[in-house]
Amino acid sequence: MVIGLIDGPVASSCPGLAGERVQVIPGGGASECVHADSMACQHGTFVAGILLAQRGSVAPAICPACTLLVRPVFSEVKTRREQMPSATLESLAEAIVECMAAGARLLNLSLALVHQSRRGESALTAALNDAARRGVLLVAAAGNQGTVGGSLITRHPWIVSVTACDLAGRPMPQSNLGRSIGQHGLSAPGDAITSLDSDGKPLVMSGTSVAAPLVTGAIALLWSEFPNATAAAVRLAIARSAAVRRTSVAPPLLNAWGAYRLLQDARL
């Protein structure tokens, strides 16, 4: 599976990621970190570690045999670690188009959006609609503002929005919720998740941006087991695996095994 990571740059040479299938998208800028202690580098490496870190590392990944196409959209400036990196609508739309052109079948968006504009909304909507037509799945963090509502991303019917839950399966207080998130999204663990820091040492983060790649990784594994399945079939299996009525603003928990069984039954 080829996954597009729209995030910060990745310290691909750090222990745990060295030798893994991390590639830069031509024209997307450098995928390797310039400032290893920047939030952009730490965030990008952390999310990449959840998806692709070696099984023998301090934080084994979900799908280490996948290919990761890194398309940075975060600038490498030192910010508070608690601050979620953000991107403009225009830069996100451009990154989505470039990832699809490079062959990504699945995109992970662990980011917040800033500088809303009509032009940016139009460009992003067009990119999301194009992804749906092409059968490219997108998984996006719902956000960590603790609000009930939605955004251009979470309201799009093709997006799988992800909220963060604690180890008991309860939504974390900072996770954004909403009608569209409850209808089309999923919940995944996001409380004190361990992955890789930019120096290869373990790092612990929380929030929807670390819950999203758990869903992305699960989808990548499912699709690799059923390579002939369409994007719509994979997305439907993930959505229906919860086996609950979607009447809440909080989405159901990810059930990868349930989705596997549904895809298996469909193949039979």
For the termini, the CA-CA separation is 23 Å
Mean of residue pLDDT values:
90
Tally the helices: what do you get? 8
Structural class: alpha/beta
Could you describe the 3D structure shown?
The chain has one domain: Rossmann fold. Helices cover 35% and strands 18% of the residues. The mean pLDDT is 90. It has a seven-stranded parallel β-sheet, sandwiched between helices. A two-stranded parallel sheet has the order 4-6. The protein has helices at 39-52, 89-101, 118-134, 152-155, 179-184, 208-225, 231-240, 256-267, and strands at 2-7, 22-24, 67-72, 86-88, 106-109, 112-114, 137-141, 159-165, 186-189, 193-196, 202-205. It is of the alpha/beta class and 268 residues long.
Task: Give the SSE map.
Blueprint: E1 2-7, E2 22-24, H1 39-52, E3 67-72, E4 86-88, H2 89-101, E5 106-109, E6 112-114, H3 118-134, E7 137-141, H4 152-155, E8 159-165, H5 179-184, E9 186-189, E10 193-196, E11 202-205, H6 208-225, H7 231-240, H8 256-267
Parallel strand pairs: 1-3, 1-5, 2-3, 4-6, 5-7, 7-8, 8-9
Antiparallel strand pairs: 10-11
Helix pairs in contact: 1-6, 2-3, 7-8
